[in-house]
TrEMBL record:
UniProt xrefs under Gene3D superfamilies: Immunoglobulins
InterPro entries for this protein: Ig-like_dom, Ig-like_dom_sf, Ig-like_fold, Ig_sub, Ig_sub2, Ig_V-set, JAM2
Keyword Membrane: yes
Record keyword Membrane present: yes
Listed transmembrane segments: 223-247
GO biological process: leukocyte cell-cell adhesion
Protein name as catalogued: Junctional adhesion molecule 2b
Amino acid sequence: MLALPLLMILLQSPVCLSVTVSSNKPNVEVHEHSDAVLSCEFRTEKDQSPRIEWKKKGKGVTFVYFNQKFTSSYARRAKIEGATLTLHSVTQKDSGEYRCEVTAGEDHVNLGETIVTLNVLVPPHVPSCEVPSSVFVGAGLDLLCKDKLSVPPATYRWFKDNKALTATADTPYSIDPHKGSLKFQSVSKTDAGMYRCESSNNVGAPKSCVAQQLKIIEYPLNMTILIAGAAGFVVLALFCCICVCVCRRRGCCKKKDKKTKSAKPYNPPPPPPPPPIRNLKHYKQTQSFMI
C-alpha cells in the first residue's frame, strides 16, 4: 500500500534527459578518391530541430558544416543526412579528426558531441631512385629509394637485371626494406648492372622506378701510379721525421752544436776619458811651472 503512492509520484515527476550523440563507426579508413561516410547519430529530450555542426581538428579547428550549410572548401563535395556527413572523392588532406556537435536548446543538458577519425589510404607512387652512373672498384656505395606519398608508408625491394635482391650473410650488400637503402661495403666488377626499386603497401599495386645502369670502373694505370707515388712520399716523409726524433733523443744534435761553437775574443773596455779642464788660467800656470 505504501509502495503504490511512491510509484505514482515517480511516474508523474519529469524525467531529466539530455541530448546524446554517438557514432557507430568512430574510425573510418577509405581509399583515396573514394567516398567517406562519417556516422553521427543523436537523440534529444524535447528539441526536435537541434543545431548540427561538424568541425575538423588540425593545427586549429575549422568548420565543415555550420549554420545549415557547408563551408567553401566542402560545398560541392559533401552532403549531410540527419547528422551523418559524407565526403566525396577524399584525398590525403582530408585525413584527420572530425567532431559532430548537436545542440538542443530545449533539453536539460543541451550539448552533445562525438569524434570520428578519418584515415585516407594512398596506394604506392613511383618512387625516386638514386643510382650513380659509375663507381670505382673497391669503393663503398649507397643506393636510395623513396616514396613519400603512400599511406601507410611503403616498403621497398631492389632488383638487379630484373631479379629481386635478397640480402644474406654471404652477400656483399645489405638492404633496409623500410628506408629503401641498398648498401655495398666494397663493389666489384660483378656488381655492375641495371638497378631499379619497387615500392608497395596493402592499398594498391606496387610501383617501380625506371631501371638505371651502374658501371664499375677500374682505376687507370696513371692514377694507380699517382696513388702509389703519393703513398711512397708519405712513407718517406714519415721515416725522415722518425729519424730526426731519434737523433734528437740521443743527443746527436747537441754534441754537434758544442763542437761547432767558437770562443769569443776578449775585448778590454776602453780607458776612461780625462777629466774636463775647469780653470784654463790655472792650468797654463801649472804647465809653465812644470817646464
